[in-house]
Amino acid sequence: MNNLTNQGRTALVYGGSRGIGAAIVKRLAEDGYDVAFTYVSRPDAAGALVDEVAALGGNALAILADSTDASSIEHAATAAHARFGAIDAVVVNAGIYKAGQVGEVSISDLDQMLAVNVRGVFLSIQASVPLLKDGGRVVTIGSNVVNGVGSPGSSVYQLTKAAVAAMVKGLALDLAPRRITVNNVQPGPTKTDITSGFLEYLIERSPQKRVADPSEIAGAVAYFLRDDAAYVTGASLTIDGGFTL
Ligand SMILES: NC(=O)c1ccc[n+]([C@@H]2O[C@H](COP(=O)([O-])OP(=O)(O)OC[C@H]3O[C@@H](n4cnc5c(N)ncnc54)[C@H](OP(=O)(O)O)[C@@H]3O)[C@@H](O)[C@H]2O)c1
What we know:
NAD(P)-bd_dom_sf; Rossmann fold; oxidoreductase; SDR family oxidoreductase; alpha/beta; SDR_fam; 42% helix; binds NADP nicotinamide-adenine-dinucleotide phosphate; oxidoreductase activity
């Protein structure tokens, strides 16, 4: 690991096995954190990430925990705490996108998106807070779609991410007495499995004619974890290359 500043610190990433979450796990491990992370469908990706972090000299723990299930979410926080000790930072990245215009959205897709992207985010933070150190950090992953300039077929996704941006403000106030900050990173189009089907379309629409690399989103998360970001709370930071300006 190339940075010893955070040695002995612990992070828990909900939804860390792939894409932006995996980039966050790697970045925090590089920054010196012991990192526990959850996954739900890809034990292969989760195991490979643990090995990758170990090869870099770091410590990672993969925990199977579905963000739609309250007891699994709680188990993840307890397992992270049991392995690495009191938690310094919780990052809630797990999220899903199911496209559908208003007439096409099924009840099941609606419920699933609300369950992972909203209910799961709140429950992950609620489960972690008792195990989080005073002065700790909570970071959620929202989306730039809340700024507007979305695409048809994204209304439910858009509402879930707007809920996250609103939620961090209330949570920031709840946790301010413990000097725990709560902030939200809002990525624009980023090269992951979610965007693999329409990358060319996104690149064409982008002012910089490119999408983000997941490491660029992880960099924003790392900012909120810095000691000198201790007075930043309730904020949403959009990282989208000007996509929604
Ligand atoms: N990519 C973009 O352009 C973009 C833009 C704006 C916002 N975002 C947001 O960024 C976050 C990550 O997106 P991504 O593109 O990196 O997605 P991704 O490549 O599909 O990865 C999603 C991650 O979340 C985990 N996950 C999904 N559902 C889960 C559940 N029910 N319980 C636990 N973990 C779950 C997955 O675990 P498994 O590997 O086990 O399936 C995986 O680690 C999401 O919140 C997304 O809305 C993405």
